[in-house]
Amino acid sequence: MLEHSRPSLSRRALIGGIAAGAVAAAAVAAPAAAEKSESCKPAKLVPGDLVVVPAPGGPTTATAVGRGIALLESWGLRVELTEHALDTFGYLSAPDADRLADLQYALDHPEAKALMTARGGYGTTRIIDEVDFSGLEDHPKLIVGYSDITALHLAANHHTGLASLHSPMMAWSSNNTAATAESLRSALMSTDPVVLTRDPAEPTAAVEVPGTASGLLYGGNLSLLDAEPDDNHLPDFDGAILFIEDTDEYRYRIDGMLTRFTRAGHFDGLAGIAVGQFTPNEHDEYKPGEWTMNEVLTDRLGGLGIPVLGGLKVGHGLDPRVMPLGTEAVLDTDAGTLTIEAAVGE
Q1: Transmembrane segments in this chain: where (predicted)?
Q2: 153 shares its domain with 202
């Protein structure tokens, strides 16, 4: 069964070090947001549970996937690859019909407790509108992935309210560390809140608008958020915290995506913004007098009138961390933390 938790209750559990007066003020300021939304949680994983692995986007290799399988098996979990998880079809893992069938199989799987995608790449948006999410009501499971899998996170939450994990995938990257692995294990197998702390060494650490905010946390890869049709799977951002990250994009392209979000009104009503890793495009040569990536982000986000916290180790960069999506979070720029309710329940 899915676990439903009211944000107004979970918020009190998460606040911790924030003063009681600030909590009361936040609750008074946004009662509608607290009443209209619920977080739906699959159960935490335990040894013996099954994780099923489709590849709805790009191709990968057996070697990379093998590293991820070994990691999960070391925690006592079982792993099943879908039929086409290791196929290659151009820049896709398989033709659309095969990727869709594999994804549907994974979502409907009656025994699996989690769906962890093989990798991101490109291709999920080509099939996402044909996916049936009704099986998650009978067989709820945790969806794990990031990058191109942002489209799957958005759609699954839109149709079911299901919380999920923005996380490295089964094709275990050389960017990942032992700390990355531990953050995944904890997010999969524990109901403890996830606390992400601004890292001064992260390039986006200087991106900040002071303040505190609380609300449901949504987001992911900015390119995928920007590509989502406005009337399709984008969540209701009113009273929410939006997380963004991206990789291999030109600065003017990031400017354009954030500008489109502004023009479309998607920033209206947001409580705050969390900024992860924005790894540069190697051909985006900086010239004196141009804006840096941080200056682009600050220019586009700094005038929204809401708190912004950068420097989070979440995204395509080195040593990333795992982030729940679709649960209640508290952003505090003074402490430099984003504290997030677990995506799983007991």
Answers
A1: none
A2: no
Number of Cβ within 10 Å of residue 6's Cβ equals: 13
- pLDDT at position 101: 98
Of the chain, the end-to-end C-alpha distance in Å amounts to: 10
Instruction: Examine the domain organization and report whether 144 and 210 are in the same domain.
Output: no
Q: What angle do CA 274, 329, 342 make, to 5 degrees?
A: 115
CA distance 342 to 183: 12
Phi and psi angles of residue 4, each rounded to the nearest 5 degrees, phi first: -105, 130
Residue 4: beta bridge partners?
40
Q: Token pair for residue 85?
A: 């998880």
Quick count: other Cβ atoms within 10 Å of Cβ 217? 29
* The Cα angle at residue 339 between residues 234 and 190, in degrees rounded to 5: 95
In DSSP terms, 324 is beta-bridged to 165
User: Cβ distance 247 to 254 under 8 Å?
Assistant: no
Q: Which are the contacts of 30, defined by CB distance < 8 A and separation ≥ 6?
A: 215, 239, 271
| Per-residue pLDDT, 339 | 98
Enumerate residues 6+ apart whose C-beta is below 8 A from 218: 154, 157, 235, 237, 240, 241, 242, 243, 325, 326
CATH number at residue 178: 3.40.50.10740
In a domain, 45, yes or no: no
What is the residue range of 309's domain?
10-37+191-340
pLDDT tens-digit series, residues 156-209: 999 999 999 999 999 999 999 999 999 999 999 999 999 999 999 999 999 999
Number of domains in the chain: 2
Q: If you count them, how many residues does the chain have? A: 346
Q: Which SS3 state, helix, strand or coil, does residue 16 take?
A: coil
For the annotated catalytic residues, the residue numbers are: 147, 245, 316
* Arithmetic mean of pLDDT, 216-240: 95
177 and 198 belong to one structural domain: no
Residues 199 and 336 in one domain: yes
Q: Are residues 335 and 196 in the same domain?
A: yes
